[in-house]
Design brief:
Elements lengths: L9 H16 L9 H21 L3 H27 L4 E4 L13 E4 L17 E4 L5 E2 L9 E7 L2 E7 L6 E7 L2
Antiparallel strand pairs: 1-2, 1-4, 3-5, 5-6, 6-7
Length: 178
C-alpha cells in the first residue's frame, strides 16, 4: 500500500514519516519552559522591582529636603546682608496658634529693610519649623554666632538644619519624625 500522495516523491514522504516517528519516541522537547528558565525570569523581575522601589522616594521627604536647602540659602543670604549692613537680623518662624496680622506669612526675617525683603512662605504650606532652644535664629551682624538648630517637619518627615556659628546652615539630620 502506498504511503505517499500522488505527486510527491516517495523518498521525501518516507523521510517525513520517519522523522515523525522519531520525534514521537524520544528526544522530543515538550512545549513550555524549564524550571531554570522560570527561575531566571523571576529573579530578573524581582531585581527590577527592587531597584524601582529604591529609586522612588517619599514625596514628603523630597519636599522637605527642598525646603531645607531653600531655607539654608535664605538664612545665608540674610546673614550676609546683616554683616554688610551692620544690623541685627533674626529669622522668626510662625508659631502654631500665634495671631499674626498676615495669615500668609509663615516666617519672617526681622531687621532687613523692605528693599532686602526675602520670601516669607514655605513652598509647601504644611511645612512647620521650630528653632531648638530659642524663639528665633540670630543671623548677625557678628561674624561668629552661637550654634543654632532648626527642625523642619512635613507630615511624618523631619529635617534638621544646623550651624556651628562659623559655618553656613546645613542639613544635620533627616528621617521620620518620632
Amino acid at each position: 500500500m502506498p504511503i505517499s500522495a500522488p505527486g510527491s516523491s516517495g523518498a521525501a514522504a518516507a523521510a517525513a514519516a520517519a522523522g515523525a516517528v522519531h520525534r514521537g519516541r524520544s528526544g522530543a522537547r515538550p512545549g513550555g519552559f524549564t524550571l531554570i528558565e522560570l527561575l531566571v525570569v523571576i529573579a530578573i523581575v524581582a531585581i527590577s522591582a527592587g531597584l524601582i522601589t529604591l529609586s522612588l522616594r517619599d514625596g514628603h521627604a523630597a519636599k522637605l529636603e527642598e525646603e531645607g536647602a531653600r531655607l539654608a540659602a535664605l538664612l545665608e543670604m540674610a546673614r550676609a546682608e546683616a554683616r554688610v549692613a551692620g544690623t541685627t537680623v533674626r529669622w522668626v518662624p510662625k508659631r502654631e496658634g500665634s495671631s499674626d496680622p498676615d495669615p500668609d506669612v509663615q516666617f519672617r526675617f526681622v531687621g532687613l529693610s523692605e528693599l532686602q525683603a526675602l520670601p516669607t512662605r514655605w513652598l509647601d504650606p504644611a511645612t512647620q519649623a521650630q528653632v531648638v532652644g530659642a524663639a528665633t535664629v540670630v543671623l548677625g551682624p557678628e561674624a561668629i554666632l552661637p550654634p543654632q538648630r532648626i527642625v523642619l517637619r512635613l507630615e511624618n518627615q523631619r529635617l534638621e538644619l544646623a550651624s556651628d556659628g562659623l559655618g553656613p546652615f546645613a542639613v544635620a539630620g533627616s528621617g521620620a519624625a518620632p
